[in-house]
Specification:
Blueprint (H helix, E strand, L loop, with lengths): L16 H5 L15 E7 L5 E7 L1 H4 L4 E6 L31 E2 L5 E7 L2 H10 L1 E6 L6 H6 L12 E9 L2 H6 L3 E9 L2 E2 L7 E7 L4 E5 L5 H12 L6 E4 L15 H13 L3 E4 L2 H7 L2 E2 L2 E9 L5 E13 L8 H9 L8 E10 L13 H19 L3 H8 L8 E2 L2 E3 L8 E2 L4 H12 L1 H4 L6 E2 L2 E14 L4 E8 L5 E5 L8 H13 L6 E5 L16 H28 L7 E3 L2 E3 L5 E2 L8 E7 L4 E13 L6 E11 L6 H20 L30 E6 L22 H12 L14 H14 L3
Parallel strand pairs: 1-13, 11-12, 16-17, 24-25, 31-32
Antiparallel strand pairs: 1-5, 2-4, 2-6, 3-5, 7-17, 7-19, 8-15, 9-14, 10-11, 10-13, 15-16, 18-20, 21-22, 22-30, 23-24, 23-29, 26-27, 27-28, 30-31
Helix pairs in contact: 9-10, 10-17, 14-15, 16-17
């Protein structure tokens, strides 16, 4: 009996982990080149000001400092960082690689110092004298909207973009509604706190006219195109090389000013140049995200059926539009409704420019904050209408019979295709979560004071868009020993690409997984690729591998047929061997050098979905919250590796808990950053949330790709803010406290209780 490979769906141990656990991973900061220089960035300490002078004389006089670059050393016009999707409307807010006349946020690069060591470069950067005339800062979205100070002259507004999601007849929906409620909510500014900060090593080969940049993550092929255009080089003369990466989460790996500056310095001076961001720089320079406020109104009938949602959402995007900075803004317009049917919709999402670090994507962009808004509204509506919190959700979840369910159109669409939830039974995952959590029994403690703490349960439902198009590419080559080298355009940012892709390739090729080696991300492997973002790596890269494996098997059959003197139709490929019915075989090693290229084109997204529930205990005296139990159940279509999936979901949940309770990048009214270290920015510790559970299902494969897989890298974080804030509200129901602002720090919860008590006083 023939045994069929079943690596897909098996808990294969991550092949990456062995080298990481042995300390054999290789990161950018591990790289050393002969004649290497080190770079340090001189950054503005002023949020908004006129840059009158940059004096590098004292820096250049220091021992070991070799050179400095200011705006006057750059080509004119000063290069601007391009958008990932061309957008002429937002050209005025593109970021220059170095500030010239004006600085617009604390941390904006104004010069680059180059020295024999990182320490010497830092000394040199500290010695650069800046003359900046202070200008009035725009400190928040309300000041931005007033427009008393325009950050970019000639724009007429600090509103970089507005996205509108509209459906149905919103006026009729609210006119006929038995119940409406309008609320304001806010999610704080935060960032992706990756274990490894950003780093780059650029090398210029003058003889060959080639630029190599090590430190690719997330988007090596886009970054190569951007770099080639900005450096006026042919695209094939630029390579981005991927090494091990200590996390990405949406922020790490975009094109930043440092990408250009380090490469420009390497080319200008003929030395390899390395730059590694320190943690303080990370806070002020990497893309921020999330700072979002809303004014939303929901309409329901008396039985809790949602009739409509309308209102405005305001995203503080900082001083410039980052390459993918509109994704959270656009997603908020389209996805605040989450997994619920909302037949009438009128939501506008505004991108507001301020004097802060530019904002971009962070895991679950737009969906985390939109989920918080919607789930809070549903709990408030249920309370007002005297309805069960579970039933109001179950009643409004998109039904299985409605699949595929078209989501509201967003305009302008910026080249994004219209989208629809592809498949699923949302109520089934919901019911499984409630049952496995033991909601009925635990709900008896809702609002009760037990051993000095108030207990409460919370719930939130979500969808996660994945499989971002338009395509991904792959190549498979037979090596001399008969093994298979698999090259894929997907990048590895810590999610286990080498393991996942090997599982897919081994099954597609029908060979042992030990015969497969995966190479990923670097532009040296493939002429085209797209990278890892939008929960796409497995869906798109894995599907490209399947297509490529099928093409290679056809080539193997043709080549073996020639050797065996038969027609290709007479050759079978089974268990990694080519042969005929009479038992003749061609060893795979004899076909060494045979290769196939393939791609997977797709513009239809996948949608993982699920429900999360939480049980918390709140100490009203201190505002402290303990998460006693947390369960998330999602359906990911098809599970490739349950162990790596579980790690993704739990890891996302932990990040979501940090976002809900502690992490915040704060600024003062002058636009000064108030966070400088991990002592100020409280990321979760391993001991903070020990009671987290995740259950992933595969009941409804996606019809939009051959694997049936759905992206699952972001679902873990999306429902956390909604579920936990609802749990805190339930715990504090006797006070009438209603969380509307994140993070729910002890001080904020204590103040909530105090305000609720005062509001209830005669």
């Amino acid at each position: 009996m023939r045994l069929v490979n079943t690596f897909i769906g098996s808990p294969v141990q991550r092949v990456e982990d062995l080298r990481f656990l042995r300390g054999r991973g290789q990161y950018v900061d591990d790289l050393v080149r002969p004649g290497q220089w080190h770079a340090a960035v001189v950054r503005s300490g002023v949020a908004h000001g006129r840059l009158k002078a940059v004096d590098t004389a004292a820096a250049l006089a220091l021992p070991g400092v070799h050179a400095a670059i200011t705006a006057r050393d750059l080509p004119r016009p000063i290069p601007l960082i391009p958008f990932r999707r061309p957008n002429p409307r937002m050209t005025p807010w593109m970021q220059p690689v170095l500030a010239d006349d004006v600085v617009r946020y604390v941390g904006e690069p104004v010069a680059l110092v180059l020295a024999e060591s990182a320490e010497r470069a830092e000394d040199g950067a500290a010695a650069v004298a800046l003359d900046i005339e202070h200008l009035p800062p725009v400190a928040d979205r309300r000041a931005s909207a007033r427009g008393d100070v325009l950050l970019v002259a000639g724009t007429g507004s600090n509103r970089a973009a507005v996205y509108t999601a509209a459906d149905g007849d919103i006026e009729a929906a609210f006119g006929n509604a038995a119940y409406t409620r309008r609320e304001e909510f806010r999610v704080q500014r935060m960032t992706a706190m990756t274990m490894e900060t950003r780093g780059l090593l650029a090398e210029w080969d003058a003889k060959a006219g080639r630029l190599t940049v090590s430190g690719a993550a997330k988007l090596p092929f886009f970054n190569r195109r951007a770099m080639a255009a900005m450096m006026k080089l042919p695209e094939e003369a630029v390579d981005y090389v991927e090494y091990d990466v200590g996390g990405g989460f949406g922020a790490r790996g975009e094109f930043y000013p440092e990408d250009f500056l380090v490469a420009f310095a390497a080319r200008k001076f003929g030395h390899p140049v390395k730059w590694v961001e320190d943690r303080r720089e990370h806070f002020m320079a990497i893309g921020h995200s999330r700072e979002t406020e809303c004014e939303l109104e929901i309409a329901l009938d008396r039985d809790g059926l949602i009739l409509g949602l309308r209102g405005d959402i305001f995203v503080d995007i900082g001083a410039y539009v980052r390459p993918n900075g509109m994704t959270p803004v656009r997603n908020l317009a389209q996805f605040t409704t989450g997994p619920y049917r909302v037949p009438n919709l009128a939501v506008e999402s505004h991108a507001m420019v301020t004097n802060k670090t530019p904002s971009g994507t962070y895991r679950g962009p737009g969906r985390f904050e939109g989920g918080f808004f919607m789930e809070r509204l549903l709990d408030m509506a249920a309370k007002d209408l005297g309805l069960d919190r579970l039933e109001i959700r179950r009643k409004n979840l998109i039904p299985r019979a409605a699949m595929p369910y078209a989501l509201a159109l967003v305009r302008p669409n910026d080249g994004f295709p219209d989208t629809a939830c592809d498949s699923g039974d949302y109520a089934s995952a919901f019911d499984r979560c409630i049952k496995d959590f033991g909601w009925t029994e635990k709900a008896k403690q809702n609002g009760k004071l037990v051993n000095g703490r108030y207990h409460g349960l919370g719930i939130a439902c979500f969808i996660e868009g994945g499989g971002s198009g338009p395509r991904e590419t792959a190549r498979i080559v037979i090596e001399r020993d008969g093994s298979f080298a698999v090259y894929v355009g997907s990048s590895a940012v810590g999610q286990g690409v080498e393991t996942i892709m090997a599982q897919i390739a081994a099954d597609a090729l029908d060979v042992p997984i030990e015969q497969v080696t995966v190479y990923h991300g670097s532009t040296t492997y493939l002429p085209e690729g797209y990278g890892s973002y939008g929960s796409r790596a497995t869906v798109m890269g894995g599907s490209a591998i399947v297509a490529t494996a099928n093409a290679l098997i056809e080539q193997i059959r043709a080549a073996a047929a020639g050797r065996l003197g038969v027609a290709p139709e007479a050759v079978t490929w089974r268990d990694g061997r080519a042969g005929t019915a009479d038992g003749r075989r061609v060893a795979t090693a004899e076909l060494a050098g045979l290769s196939a290229d393939g791609k997977f084109d797709n513009s239809k997204a996948t949608y993982t979905y699920g429900t999360a529930v939480a049980h918390v205990a709140v100490d009203a005296r201190t505002g402290g919250v303990d998460v006693l139990d947390y369960l998330v159940v999602d359906d990911v279509g098809r599970i490739i590796n349950p162990e790596t999936l579980h790690g993704q979901v739990i890891g996302g949940a932990v990040q979501g808990l940090g976002s809900t309770f502690s992490e915040e990048i704060a600024y003062d009214e002058q636009g000064q950053l108030l966070v400088a270290s991990l002592a100020d920015y409280l990321v979760p510790l391993a001991t903070d949330y020990p009671n987290l559970r995740a259950l992933s299902l595969e009941g409804h494969p996606s019809p939009n790709n051959p694997l049936g897989a759905k992206g699952a890298g972001e679902g873990g974080i999306i429902p956390v803010g909604g579920a936990l804030s609802n749990a805190v509200a339930a715990a504090l129901s006797s006070f009438g406290a209603e969380p509307r602002v994140l993070p729910l720090t002890p001080a904020r919860i204590w103040q909530l209780i105090k305000d609720a008590r005062n509001a209830g006083s005669p």
